[in-house]
Amino acid sequence: MIQDKDRKREVIVKRIANELKDGELVNLGIGMPTLVANYIPEGIDILLHSENGFVGLGPSPKLGEEDKDIVNAGSQPATHVEGAAFFDSAMSFTIIRGGHLDVTVLGALQVDQEGNLANWMIPGKMVPGMGGAMDLVVGAKKVIVAMEHTAKGETKILKKCSLPLTAAGQVDMIVTEMGVMKVTPKGLVLTELAPETTVEEVIAATEAELIIPEDLIPMNV
Amino acid sequence: MIQDKDRKREVIVKRIANELKDGELVNLGIGMPTLVANYIPEGIDILLHSENGFVGLGPSPKLGEEDKDIVNAGSQPATHVEGAAFFDSAMSFTIIRGGHLDVTVLGALQVDQEGNLANWMIPGKMVPGMGGAMDLVVGAKKVIVAMEHTAKGETKILKKCSLPLTAAGQVDMIVTEMGVMKVTPKGLVLTELAPETTVEEVIAATEAELIIPEDLIPMNV
Amino acid sequence: MNKIKTIEQALDYIKDGMTIAVGGFLAVGTPDKLIDAVIAKGVKDITLICNDSGFPDRGVGKWVVNKNVKRVIVSHIGTNPETGRQMNEKELEVELVPQGTLAERVRAAGAGLGGILTPTGIGTVVEEGKQKLNVDGKEYLLELPLKADVALIKGSIVDKKGNIYYSKATRNFNPIMATSADVVIVEAEKLVEVGEIDPTDVMTPSIFVDVIVQ
Amino acid sequence: MNKIKTIEQALDYIKDGMTIAVGGFLAVGTPDKLIDAVIAKGVKDITLICNDSGFPDRGVGKWVVNKNVKRVIVSHIGTNPETGRQMNEKELEVELVPQGTLAERVRAAGAGLGGILTPTGIGTVVEEGKQKLNVDGKEYLLELPLKADVALIKGSIVDKKGNIYYSKATRNFNPIMATSADVVIVEAEKLVEVGEIDPTDVMTPSIFVDVIVQ
Q1: What is the per-residue pLDDT across B101-131, written as a single tens digit (0 to 9) for each?
Q2: Given pLDDT bands bounded at 50, 70 and 90, which one contains residue A125?
Q3: What's the gap in Å between the CA of D143 and the closest CA on chain B?
Q4: Which CATH number fits domain D7-116+146-213: 3.40.1080.10, 3.40.190.10, 3.40.50.720, 3.30.1250.10?
Q5: Out of C26, C79, C124, whose CB is closest to B134?
Q6: What is the CATH number of the domain that holds B212?
Q7: Which residues are CB-contacts of B180 (< 8 A; sequence separation ≥ 6)?
Q8: Interchain proximity B45–D111, CB inside 8 Å
Q9: How far is C137 from chain D (nearest CA, A)?
Q10: Of A88, A184, A139, A53, residue with least CA distance to D140
C-alpha cells in the first residue's frame, strides 16, 4: 500500500494520463486532475477543454508573461496552444453536453458501485456549487474519477453514495492509489492493482462490493 | 380607389416607411416589402435584419461590385452598411424569436379580423414553405402586412382565413392601397383611408367586419 | 491526426440511406465540390437536413434533380420547382420546418438537449403530432433534436487542424450543422496553417471537424 | 441614437429589486466599473444572475460582501466564502444551477424559447420541483428561461453603435447575458468608431446594446 502522499498522486495521475488517446478532447477538473497534463505520454496529442470557454488550454504562463484575458476555469492565469479556439459558455457546454468531449477527469467526495458520483456539496458544511461538474459527468463520453481511495481513514468507494449526487450512474472508471476500478453492468470491477498493494488491502479499504477478475493486472503506470 | 399598380405599391410601401421609428430593427420580406427601404424618411435611422444572418443590410450593389459572400435572404447580391454584424442562423432567429426585432413587414395570401395570417402555402398548388415567416410573425414586436387589398377581384381580408395559417393572432397592422387597418381586441379597425378612396369602397372590398372609427384619418403618405 | 483528405477519401464516409446535414442558405455557404462528388458517386436515399432545397442547378438542389435524396427536412422549397414537383408526385418526402425551429432542432442535437420549446407554429399545421406545453400561461411546441450521420460544411478559411472561419453571410447554418453530426466534413475555400486563424475568431472549433477537403 | 453615456447616467437604469445578469466567469470578463458604481449608488435587493459569485474583493462578489443582493442564481459560490456564510445565516438566497443549464436558461430567455430539455441534473437535487419529460426513452429536465431586467456586460472592443468583440476567455457568459435583458449596458475596455470592428467578427450585434459606458 502506497503511503506517501506525493507518490499516491503520481500513481493516480500517471495512470490516467496513460488512459488518454491521440486526438482526444479532455477536461481536467481543478486540483489533482490538473496534474494529469504533466504526464501525457509522448506521441499522444490531446486537446484540453476549459469550461470558461476554450479548447487548447496550455501550460501555466511564466511569471510576468500572463495575459489577463486568458485564464483557466479556476481563474488562474493560463495559456493556449497553437490551434486553440475561444467561444462563449453556450458553446462550451454544447461541447460538453453534446457528447463532443472524450474524457472528463474529476475528483470525488464519494463514488459508488453503480457509478453514482458525489462531489459538489456536503449538506450543512461545504456547498461550493456544482459549477460545470453535473454537465461534464452527464455529457463526457468517458468519466474518470481521480481521488485517494480513502479520506481520514474512511472509504470513499461505497455501496451507495450518501451525499447529494452530482450525477447518477455516469462514472466509467475510478483511479486511486490502490488501483483501477471500472463500473460495469455486473458491478464494480477491480481491473488493475497498484504497485506495493494487495487485493486484500483494496477490499479492506472499499465498502462497495468489488469484483476481482481472474485477469487482474498490475496498474499501468 | 387607386387603380394603377405602381401607384398602389407606392402608397403601401410609403405608408409603412412612415411607420418606422428611429433606431428600430426591421425585417422586410421578399417582394413588395423590400421596397419599403426606398422610402425611409430622412432623419430616421433604421437597421435592416436579413434572416440568412446579419443586421445592417444595405442597398443592392452596383453591377460588377458584388461580393459573393454577401447576399440577402432571397440569395440576391447585397451590401452591408457600416456597423453591420454577421452571425449564424441560431443567432438570426434568437433576434427574431426573442423579441429583439421591432418590426416585420411581409406579404399575405389572406389575413383575417383576428390577426391570423396565411402566406406560406396553397394546398394542392403552391407550397414554397414557410422559411422564416412563422418565426418572424410570432417573434416581431410589430407585424405589418403589406399587400394589395384584393387578388383577382377577391378580397384578401377575411372574417376567417381559409388557407393554412402562418401564425394565429399575431398581425398588428394591415396596409393596403385602400387604407390602414389595425387588429384590436374589439376587432379590425380601419384607422386610415387611402387617397382617392371612400369608406364604402373599402367595406365593399373587405369580407372582414370593419370597425369604422369616428377619428378615421387620411392615410399618412 | 491528419484530417486532410481527398474528396474521394471523404466520400468513404457517405453511404446510401444516411442523414446528411448540409450548410448553406440558398446555395450560399454550401460546399459545392462535396455536393457534386456525392452526385458523381451516385449516393442514394439521402435524408437531407438543410435550410432549403436550393436551386435546380445550384446547391443541394442538384441532389433533388439527380434523385440522390428520398427525404428533405428544410424550411423552404420555393426556389427549386423540382422539389415541389417530386413532392406532388410522391417521389420525394418533404418535411417543412420553420427556419428558426430548424436552427434550434439542429443545435439541440449538437448540444445534447432533448428538445426545445418554441412558440413558433402554434395554431398552425406545424403543431400536428407534437406535444404542447404551457409555460407561464403561454403555449409552446416541443420540438425535437435533428441529428445527422454526416455534416457537409463550407469554410471560408480552415486551418489544418480543422478550425473554421466563415466569411460574412456564408456562415448561416454551417456552424450549427457542424455540431450535429457523427462525422463532419469541411470543404475549405482557403486552407491555412494551424495558428493563422486568431483563436478568438474561430467560429467552429477543430474538435468538431473530422475531415478537411479542398 | 447616441448610446454612449456616463456611468452615472447608466445607473439610472438600475433600481432596487431588479434582476441583473452580469457577464464574466470568476471575475474575468466582468464589468468592474459598473460593479463598483452599483455599490456606490447603494442599490439593494438585486437578484443576480451570473456564472458564479466571484471573490470577496473581485467581480460580483463585492455585491455579496456589500449586501446589494438578496438572491443569487449561479453555478458556483466556492470562491466567495461570504456567499456561503450569508446563505447559511439565511441572509442571502442562493439558487445553484449547473453551469451548462445556466447558459441554456439565459440563452432561452434571449431566444424566445419557453424552455429546454437537458439530461443534466437527472437523479440529483437539481430535479426537485421540475417537470421531467421522456424523449426517445431518455429522461430530461425541463429547464425554464432566466430573463433579466438589466444585463451588465464587459466588451474588449466596442464600437459607438454598440457592436461588441470579446477578447479570448473574456467572452464566456457575456454574449448570452446580452440577449437576455430588457436593458443591456456594456462597459467598453476600448471604444472605437463604427466600422472599426469587421462585421464578421462582431460577437454581440449592436441591436442588443442600449447603453455604452467607458
Answers
A1: 999 999 999 999 999 999 999 998 888 999 9
A2: confident
A3: 17
A4: 3.40.1080.10
A5: C124
A6: 3.40.1080.10
A7: B15, B173, B174, B190, B191, B192, B219, B220
A8: no
A9: 10
A10: A139
